[in-house]
Specification:
Structural class: alpha/beta
Strand content: 5-15%
Number of helices: 21
Number of strands: 20
Radius of gyration: 26 Å
Helix content: 25-40%
Largest sheet: 7 strands, parallel
Oligomer: single chain
Length: 682
């Protein structure tokens, strides 16, 4: 495939001024929007950069940061110097043609999507009602000041006084429809309350009413069934179709529900019906109800529009698309879907990998390109173009830096700086890196609270054991058995290889947390023995895990969606993020070796494409400290290597661990006895 070329740019006598904010995605597992968090040099979907030279504002060689605040301007935004590229001009011409119909813009990373939508809205007829659909609340809030400064915020319908140009999320549109149906139509007032644990409470009561044996812990059922229920809502899967539900569980890796599959299948339609009843009787909804209930109750939106401009089309799910299409104004409303199907990797939030084809089939949209990347240096674009050659560098793009395995993981720990982004295809390497950074006094977190929640679910069966002692051999034996049992169940249901990889990575991640906590305790004990553990106050409390609760606290400690000085993220969570310097751990895992089916392989190449297009200046492909590491299909903990700064404490030795079938005993209780009694099918 052809490689893109780039030339360097000179910024002589120009000072770049930017106010950049980090957008964190909706915490889908908790169904909450996380607070906005300021992070240096990390702003997704950037707008054109403005520079001040000789006291005169001019547009730079890129359109990357139009709308950013100029440090000397008192916080003003400037749009007057915008000059559309030939791609943008073609988009504007298409939309201004009354016979154009619906459109779809395939926009490469860093191509100025927000700028394009703002400028399009300025060019559309002044009397048009325009809705800009944002992927989450933070993006919608970011658009508001831009709409004001472009003069769009003040466009009103002269008859009704209603705003003609708005930025909203799909959830807020669904919420308004529910508010009208459940509250206003019945004469009520006030806001429709959200109860995020709504379905968990319904499921817990349902399972309790089954009067299962005392040996079964209700909490083991709640999370897996709730996850299956959520994905069935977002994909509009028929809850009475067992085959469709099984395909759903396997496709999205919801293997925790397989041990009690029949119970879940019988329960699901009843749980969804109870959710509807609770909404209508008590006006109680959760976050996903904002998408699901308007479709289930056949509601119509409170307003329709002449133009609906949808950002990140590749990340929407079936429920979102079906509700969006109801926003078309009667007698000629039009849609413009903007996104990049090469960045379709949001399966964890029920996004459909084939959404481009679905939209085209349902709307007949015309596809238009937006192919210039203004974010990345030319050398980074050239790497990305080896995967998808459509991407082009900006005319005067920086050359940039690409480091091919010149650094190992220890080098990253020592040189990573505030504002840097560290990404990896899998979770376990990020956990080790995060703890290593914390030990060096650097503030770091791993993005993805729902990942942490899924990891904690692995440990749930241990919580009811009075005899489990959390030593390395005992925990390793349990994790091996858990992994093997989950793999066996998934393979029996013909799960795709990537589902098996999710199971393995989750178990590896739990072990990585335990290992890191034990290493911290080992280091503290060594320091105390050397006479360094005494201070003016009490000695530091060690984190040696002595219970499952301690491991869960360790998971909570590092997983967050609020951001930190240094952010670590799986590639799936990093889409939309950017930083001047980006480190990719274990780049050889993309595409992942367990991806076999065509759609899986495509998603894996998409992951690599996303990873290569996050950096604005320097990209580091990090050499793994585990050169022989391969994605495992079973067995054992990850081996430590000579590069590690600390020797492995004896409490972590797993050499003596035999197969689980040998019934390793823990204080007189076999692993088999406490390990998976609750995982037997009902």
């Amino acid at each position: 495939m052809p490689k893109s070329k780039a030339t360097s740019a000179s910024f002589t006598n120009a000072r770049l001024h930017q106010a950049s904010f980090d957008m964190w995605a909706t915490d889908q597992s908790e169904s909450k929007l996380m607070p906005d968090t300021f992070v240096e040099d990390a702003k997704p979907d950037p707008d054109p950069v403005l520079v001040r030279s000789a006291g005169i504002l001019t547009q730079t060689l890129t359109q990357e940061r139009e709308g950013d605040k100029d440090a000397n301007s008192g916080g003003d935004y400037y749009y007057s110097t915008f000059k559309p590229s030939h791609y943008q001009k073609a988009i504007f011409d298409f939309c201004l043609d009354p016979a154009g119909g619906d459109g779809m813009v395939d926009a490469v990373p860093g191509s100025g999507k927000s700028t394009t939508l703002i400028e399009l809205a300025k060019r559309l007829p002044a009397g048009s009602s325009i809705l800009m659909v944002a992927f989450n609340r933070h993006i919608a809030q970011e658009l508001e000041p831009k709409l004001k400064l472009a003069g769009l915020h003040y466009r009103n319908n002269p008859r009704t006084g209603q705003r003609l140009v708005e930025a909203k999320t799909i959830h807020s549109i669904g919420y308004a429809a529910l508010q009208k149906f459940l509250v206003s139509s019945s004469g009520g007032t006030g806001r429709l309350p959200l109860e995020e644990s709504k379905y968990e409470v319904i499921i817990e009561k349902y399972i309790a009413d089954l009067r299962l044996p005392n040996s079964v812990k209700i909490s083991e059922y709640v999370y897996p069934i709730a996850k299956l229920l959520r994905f069935s809502q977002l994909t509009l899967t028929d809850p009475t179709d067992e085959t469709a539900l099984l395909n759903l569980a396997l496709h999205y890796g919801i293997t925790e529900v397989l041990p009690f599959w029949k119970t879940a299948v019988v329960a699901l339609p009843l749980l969804l019906e109870e959710g509807r009843r609770v909404a209508q009787a008590r006006n109680v909804i959760n976050y996903d109800d904002m998408l699901y209930l308007p479709m289930a109750l056949e509601l119509t939106p409170t307003q329709t529009y002449d133009w609906v401009l949808v950002d990140e089309y590749q990340d929407i799910n079936q429920a979102q698309l079906s509700f969006l299409l109801k926003l078309r104004a009667e007698g000629g409303g039009r849609f413009l879907f903007v996104g990049d199907y090469h960045q379709s990797i949001y399966g964890f939030s029920a996004a459909d990998p084939a959404m481009k084809e679905v939209i085209l089939a349902r709307t007949g949209a015309t596809v238009l390109p937006l192919s210039v990347c203004y974010r990345c240096p030319g050398s980074h674009v050239a790497l990305a173009a080896e995967i998808y050659p459509e991407i082009e560098p900006a005319p005067n793009a920086l050359v940039g830096r690409v480091s091919h395995e010149e650094l190992d993981e220890d080098d990253v720990v020592s040189q990573v700086q505030k504002g840097d982004l560290i990404i990896c295809r899998t979770t376990a390497p990020l956990i080790k890196m995060c703890f290593d950074l914390i030990k060096q006094g650097k503030q770091a977190t791993v993005r993805g609270r729902d990942i942490g929640r899924s990891m904690k679910a692995v440990l749930t069966p241990l919580e009811r054991s009075k005899y489990f002692e959390c030593t390395a051999p005992n925990l390793r034996a349990y994790l091996d058995e858990y992994r093997d049992k989950q793999l066996e169940l998934a393979k029996a249901k013909k799960a795709p290889p990537t589902t098996l990889e999710i199971i393995i990575d989750k178990v590896d991640a739990v072990w990585a947390v335990f290992e890191a906590l034990a290493l911290e305790d080992h280091a503290a004990a060594a320091a105390a023995a050397a006479g360094k553990g005494q201070g003016p106050g009490p000695a530091r409390k060690t984190l040696q895990p002595k219970s499952v609760a301690d491991i869960k606290k360790g998971i909570d400690r590092i997983f967050s969606d609020k951001g930190s000085h240094i952010n670590l993220s799986t590639v799936h969570r990093a889409k939309g993020d950017e930083a001047k310097r980006v480190y990719i751990l274990e780049p050889g895992q993309m595409p992942h070796p367990m991806a076999k089916q065509d759609w899986e392989v495509i998603q894996e190449w998409n992951c690599r494409y996303v990873a290569l297009t996050r950096a604005k200046e320097s990209l580091f492909l990090v050499k793994s400290s585990r050169p022989n590491h391969k994605s495992k299909s079973g067995g054992g903990a990850t081996a430590k290597t000579a590069q590690n700064a600390h020797a492995t404490p004896t409490c972590l030795s797993t050499e003596s661990i035999g197969p689980v079938e040998q019934n390793i005993r823990v204080v007189g209780v076999s692993v088999r006895k406490y390990g998976h009694a609750a995982l037997a099918p009902i």
